[in-house]
């Protein structure tokens, strides 16, 4: 994309730049109140350069570092936008989505196992695999406890 660095960008330009579907950007607007694109006639969104940087940083935290949406919300609330943007290494390549990590293990919302959507939680293939591993570990723990009880 050859847009000037200070230019406002449409949702399609930002989505292409961040390698995300447009609906994800619209969804993030509902979860991160700090993202406030200008809305013109017909509901067209225009993102400021600072909006794009924040989106890039949120994408990095969610997909690159494995934070949950709630975890990023907490960082934004406690440390602010500049802190979130500073957590993304300068010039870092955009990473592909990957399974969540236990960064937000104190949350009991299932955030590490489900992708949050407006309507419901959708278990991703990576999360399903992780759940299967956890289930196997729990079954092994139950087997060990049962063996200890019978001895």
Task: Write the SSE topology.
Elements: E1 9-10, H1 11-18, H2 22-31, E2 38-39, E3 45-47, H3 49-64, H4 69-79, H5 81-87, E4 115-116, E5 121-122, H6 125-150
Antiparallel strand pairs: 1-3, 2-3, 4-5
- Gyration radius (Cα, Å) is 19 Å
Apparent shape:
elongated
Number of helices: 6
CATH architecture label name: Orthogonal Bundle
At CATH level 3, the topology is Multidrug-efflux Transporter Regulator, Chain: A, Domain 2
Number of spatially distinct domains: 1
Percentage beta strand: 5-15%
Physical arrangement of strands within the biggest beta sheet? 1-3-2
Largest sheet: 3 strands, antiparallel
Helix content: 40-55%
Mean pLDDT across all residues, rounded? 78
Span between termini: 68 Å
- Give the CATH class: Mainly Alpha
Total beta-strand segments: 5
The chain-level structural class is: mainly alpha
| Uncertain residue segments | 95-121
Element order: H for helix, E for strand: EHHEEHHHEEH
């Amino acid at each position: 994309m050859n847009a000037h660095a200070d230019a406002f960008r449409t949702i399609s330009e930002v989505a292409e730049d961040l390698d995300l579907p447009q609906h994800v950007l619209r969804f993030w607007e509902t979860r991160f109140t700090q993202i406030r694109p200008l809305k013109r006639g017909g509901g067209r969104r225009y993102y400021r350069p600072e909006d794009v940087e924040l989106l890039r940083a949120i994408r990095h935290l969610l997909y690159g570092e494995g934070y949950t949406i709630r975890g990023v919300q907490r960082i934004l609330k406690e440390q602010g936008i500049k802190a979130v943007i500073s957590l993304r290494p300068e010039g870092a390549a955009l990473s592909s989505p990957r399974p969540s990590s236990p960064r937000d293990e104190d949350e009991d919302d299932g955030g590490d196992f489900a992708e949050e959507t407006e309507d419901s939680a959708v278990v991703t293939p990576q999360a399903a695999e992780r759940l299967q591993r956890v289930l196997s570990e729990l079954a092994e723990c139950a087997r060990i406890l049962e063996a200890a009880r019978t001895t």
